[in-house]
Amino acid sequence: MKILIAGDWHRDAHWAVETIKAARQQGLRHVIHLGDLGAFWPSDYPEPPSRTNSLGKAYGFTRSLSDAVRDANIKFMFIDGNNDNHEFLAQLPRRRRRARMMGLTYLPRGTRFRLGGRRFGALGGAYSLDRGQRRHHVDWWPEEEPTAEDVRRLGDRRLDVLLAHEVPASVELPASFPVRPETEAEANRTRELVQAAVEATRPAQLFAGHWHQRLTVPVPGSDTVLQVLDMQRRLGNSVVLDTKTLTVEPFVQVPARRDGPAQQERPA
Ligand SMILES: [Mn+2]
Predict the structure, then answer these.
(1) For residue 265, what pLDDT is reported?
(2) Ligand 1: distance of its center to the CA of 10 in Å?
(3) Which helix (H) or strand (E) holds 111?
(4) Who has the most CB within 10 Å: 154, 160, 184, 248?
């Protein structure tokens, strides 16, 4: 089975829809998103969130994403990043620890599942580097960082693939934007937890986003390869994972063919 893996779409509906369409055109039936998706954002709900309507139908980005997933008839799964509505995700009804809403499946931190005969684990969440510019309930939630309990829930049985938003502490990343030392120290809390999860579960492939760059590097002192994916509208935003070989290939979004069947059916 081949799975499209992407991250950091930041509520970009155009990019989300085009990527899902391209995935389907290339025969892919599964998409996994690594967080900072921005679905279920408060502004996608016309009414202020309340006990009665907070799980109701969304509009805006969430609606566009949900419609694209339905139209393409693909399975869409996602973990949380930092810029996600953690308050909303926490109240989704869970079935076997997974939560589904509007055709989108959320994988809570510590979830294990099988796909294409492989063992997957999920450990979302991260510290927001721009936390000072964000407001609680509007575009920031204090539950953004994973906890030691989340890592414990993931367990220590071996995984083939670990899905995270943050990278492990032992990996040195080239700076893609300036980060102050005190912010780096805050971010490191999550990085230490991802490190602990990698050491416990020894995955062959670890996927992460968050740092808005594309990188493939070994995790020092392990057999794990880290794949960091870039943000939306950049070449390294998505890759294809082959579960048969556990190898990763670039995903190329080919523009729609001008001579395809849909065009030929149009009256001349
Ligand atoms: Mn991001």
Answers:
(1) 41
(2) 7
(3) none
(4) 154
